[in-house]
Amino acid sequence: MLEFAEAQFTERETLFVEVILPLAIAKNYTYRVPFEMNDAVMVGKRVVVQFGKSKLYTAIIAATGKLAPEKYQAKYVIELLDDRPVVTGEQLRFWQWMSEYYMCTLGEVMNAALPSALKLASETKIVLNKDFEVDRSVLHDKEFLIVEALDIQPELTVSDIVKLLGQKTVMPILKSLFEKNVINISEEVSERYKPRTRSFITLNPVYQNPDNLKELFGILEKRAPRQADAVLAYIKLARHQKSISKTELIEESGAGAASIKSLEEKEVFIIEEKNVSRLFFEEEELYSNFELSEKQNVALNEVKEHFNKMDVVLLHGVTSSGKTQIYIRIIEEIINSGRQVLYLLPEIALTTHIIERLRVYFGASIGIYHSRFNDNERVEVWQKVITKEYKVLLGARSAVFLPFNDLGLIIVDEEHETSYKQFDPAPRYNARDAAIFLANMHKGKVLLGSATPSFESYYNARIHKYGLVELNERYGGVKLPEIEVVSIGLETKQKTMQSHFSSVLMADINMALEKKEQVILFQNRRGYAPLLICKICAYTPKCINCDVSLTYHKSSGKLHCHYCGYKDDSPKICPACGSTHLEYKGFGTEKIEDDLAMLLPDARLARMDLDTTRSRNSLQTILNNLEEKKIDILVGTQMVAKGLDFSDVTVIGIINADSLLKFPDYRANERSYQMLAQVSGRAGRRGKQGKVVIQTYDPAHRVIRQVIENDYKGLYFTEMEERRSFKYPPFYRIINLDIKHKDPEIVHNQSVYLANELRKQFDDRVIGPQPPMVSRIRNYYIQTIMLKFEKDGVSINKVKGVIRDIITQFQTTRLSKGSIVQPDVDPY
User: Fold this and answer.
1) Which of 744, 734, 741, 743 minimizes the C-alpha distance to 785?
2) Residue 226 φ then ψ, to 5°
3) Angle in degrees, CA 342, 615, 244, rounded to 5
4) Do residues 495 and 520 touch, judged by C-beta distance below 8 A?
5) pLDDT per residue over 5-49, tens digit each?
6) Which of 7, 426, 487, 793 counts the most CB atoms within 10 A of its CB?
7) Where does a domain end: 541, 564, 586?
8) Cβ atoms 366, 359 nearer than 8 A
9) Is residue 726 one of the residues assigned to a domain?
10) Which residues of 78-103 are buried (b: 16+ CB within 10 A; e: fewer)?
11) Which domain holds residue 179?
């Protein structure tokens, strides 16, 4: 027996796994696999490992092998968490590409890609799920102990739980509690998902009997005619649809909410609150039998023809041309062939109508994924993508990280949007460009859609790298909105301005209100006043952490920094000279809303900006109220330009176009055109020609004329000449290096040194260093080095390799102490 045991022991295989840790470290780390796990370890599964002196992390196995690391002794894997891989081989390839292309670490990509619940670490905070009642008698001893501890202390870290249980292997226990909905990851708690509810009405079955119904009408017509109208309206609606919402019945009958409540109290109506998807209403079924117009059919066939030869097609269709309907027809073909579809949107919460329509066609086979869903939901979607339960995935930029098996098509809607670019933290990727690589990996196709394409995409289409399909007519033959430009300077001289509103805009708003139509007003700045200034000494309050002035917000009564969140009380006396002559300069959405309330006291107003849409349901509430005509005038920032499609919005007011046009950026004209055209496109989308009023100090500005004439090509050709001359994309690639330090002199010296090292390799392709527009954020001073490289004749991969080596060499010097170097590839 002893000889056999010794023989068995000598045959044991020692395995090692290379893992990706959720940390910004340059290389993957190798761990030794306990013998009992040998048969279970697999690429893509999660393991719990110790990194550093005592910290535990959830890591992803990137490779398995038999070679031990040469330079250090491998620690043992503590625990294996999964029965099957949670990350696919294709995803790991995608992560690797993203790490190399965007010059970041695999750990940073992993952090961006995985939902928080799949990457628990020592410092991750755990809280009880207050929305879930659990029978504690079914919990195991250790699970019960954790829950009891959370009753006493509402928040515990994973490290706390390790100490509490006296063991390192706590991740499987936490995983079990998470799957039972007993606990939540605390970073998700502030944005808990709350189901959207609607009140639905059914008639008491007693009144299905014709005699009883006749008797009821006899009583109501004499005593409560409004209630009789409500019952009559219900019967009328019930002939055509299965479920009737309370809002719909009030609109149809003209009876008030009080009449409906009385009928409920009399037990004539039964009212039930139902959870309804944010993505689908039963009444939207009317969309399901649409037919494409002749122009749409031509466009659809052209897209298919291009897909026979090319992998990427750009659909350039004017606002309200029916691009979504074309998408739906293409999606149907792809999923009928058994493949998956990813539909990317720039602002998931603002594209309600697209989501609703898609849900009508694809039902339970469509999944939604974005950061406003809580961790439970995101993990559930993740698992359903792996098992191919979802055929269509709808999401914001982070959806490119989902574990697709067989991706046949990616649609990038509004592909020009800057929201597709991740600015902080790393990876600083562009979801549009990442989608093209991802589709290529899966041998799938990409359809880019926009009324105002990015110049890069349009350029690629014109040189036949992408297919190009153009749709120049609105669906149903609706005319593009009439655009009128108003000179703010002229109206100010004539004293016809009312606050920030010209006489033309006020007349159009009043006319719309008289016709019971709706208005959207656009001002690309939130808050009440961007500047508080002393009239005597010109003192302006500034953020203590950032190099920016503070913005006054009337709702909080405080001065806010829009970069770091710092807040301060608004002074009544100038702290510099003691003067009481302080005044607010400029205006934001809050001021516009405030002034409108005084000018139009009977109008129902709402505001849509970052301040009013922070909570999970606030944005949806605003959109619902706009759809249900509870709002007459909506004031908003650029949020109002993205995806809003309401039949009764007939007037759009752009309060000050100059804030867009005068921005110091080579893309200013392109972005201004896109923003103005997109905002204008919200008007008159369903049968009525809309009206757009653009207020500006420069009515003759070229871009404004091009917006009026819908002259995208004129803008494109003019801007391309300038970009070619000054070496900007799409003719050149740009890589920015931001160097940050808490001392301004040190960061200057560091950036000069780094720029000189780069010039030794790249000569005049290196520009700077120079401070950006905001040169200090969160107490870090910033210097930026810009590198420009030709697209032809230069290997960008070799260039990035050289830049990495120079940064690494710089970081080994004493000069680099305390600095942060952040590469940003394709920064704009």
Assistant:
1) 734
2) -65, -35
3) 75
4) no
5) 343 444 578 899 999 998 889 899 999 999 999 999 999 999 988
6) 426
7) 586
8) yes
9) no
10) bbbbbeebbbbebbbebbebbbebbb
11) 125-191
* Cα–Cα nearest to 436, from 85, 780, 94: 94
Looking at the fold, whether 447 and 299 belong to one and the same domain comes out as: yes
Give yes or no: residues 702 and 749 share one domain.
no
Confirm if 654 and 692 have CB atoms less than 8 A apart.
yes
Q: Is 561 annotated as a binding residue?
A: yes
* 543 labelled binding-site residue: yes
Q: Which of 494-498, 581-585, 646-650 has the lowest mean pLDDT?
A: 646-650
Residues 49 and 179 in one domain: no
- Look-up: residue for tokens 């005509």? 629
595 exposure class (CB count in 10 Å sphere: 0-12, 13-18, 19+): middle
Q: What is the DSSP string of 769-812?
A: EE--SS-EETTEEEEEEEEEEESSS--HHHHHHHHHHHHHHHHT
For residues 113 and 497, give the distance between their C-alpha atoms in angstroms, rounded to a whole number. Answer: 50
CA dist list (Å): 188 to 80, 374, 431: 25, 6, 23
**When comparing pLDDT for 139 and 242, which is higher?**
139
> Quick one: pLDDT at residue 3?
41
* Nearest C-alpha neighbor of 612 from the set 629, 600, 626, 598: 626
Query: Looking at the domain assignment, is residue 105 inside a domain?
Result: yes
Residue 240 is given by DSSP the state T
H-helix or E-strand spanning residue 821: strand 820-825
Angle (deg, nearest 10), helices 712-725 and 455-462:
90
Distance CA(405)–CA(40), nearest Å, equals 22
Are residues 502 and 632 located together in one domain of the fold? yes
How far is it, in rounded angstroms, from Cα 791 to Cα 483? 39
DSSP conformation letters of 521-562? EE-S--SSBSEEEETTT----B-SSSSSBPEEETTTTEEE-T
Lay out the sheet containing 183-185: strands in order across. 156-157, 125-128, 183-185
377 three-state secondary structure: helix
| E-only strand ranges, 12-135 | 16-20, 29-32, 46-51, 55-65, 79-80, 125-128
Find the CATH number of the domain harbouring 809: 3.30.70.600
Sheet holding 29-32, edge to edge: 29-32, 16-20, 55-65, 46-51, 79-80
For tokens 């700045």, name the residue: 525
CB neighbours of 328 closer than 8 A, spacing ≥ 6? Answer: 357, 358, 361
- Pull the structure tokens for residue 746: 């040190």
Q: Which of 433, 470, 474 is nearest to 314 (CA)?
A: 470
Assess whether the previous peptide bond of 730 is cis (omega < 30° from 0). Answer: yes
- Per the domain annotation, does 727 fall within a domain? no
Scanning 365-515, the segments in alpha helix (DSSP H) are 375-386, 431-441, 455-462, 488-493, 503-514
Note whether 456 and 716 are within 8 A (CB). Answer: no
Q: Reply yes or no on whether the pLDDT at 649 is more than 90.
A: no
Q: Is 410 helix (H, G, I), strand (E, B) or coil?
A: strand
End-to-end CA, the chain: 71
Specify whether 389 is located in the same domain as 417. Answer: yes
Q: Is 537 annotated as ligand-binding? A: yes
Q: Are 593 and 607 in contact (CB under 8 A)?
A: yes
| Token pair recorded at residue 674 | 């896109």
Establish whether 546 is an annotated binding residue.
yes
List the one residue out of 325, 403, 335, 397 whose CA is nearest residue 366. Answer: 335
pTM of the complete model: 0.78
For the chain, what is the domain count? 7
**What are 137-171's pLDDT values in tens digits?**
778 888 888 888 888 888 888 878 888 888 877 87
Of 499, 590, 569, 576, residue with least CA distance to 535: 576
Beta-carbon contacts of residue 294 (< 8 Å; ≥ 6 apart): none
Among residues 721, 740, 768, the one where a domain terminates is: 721
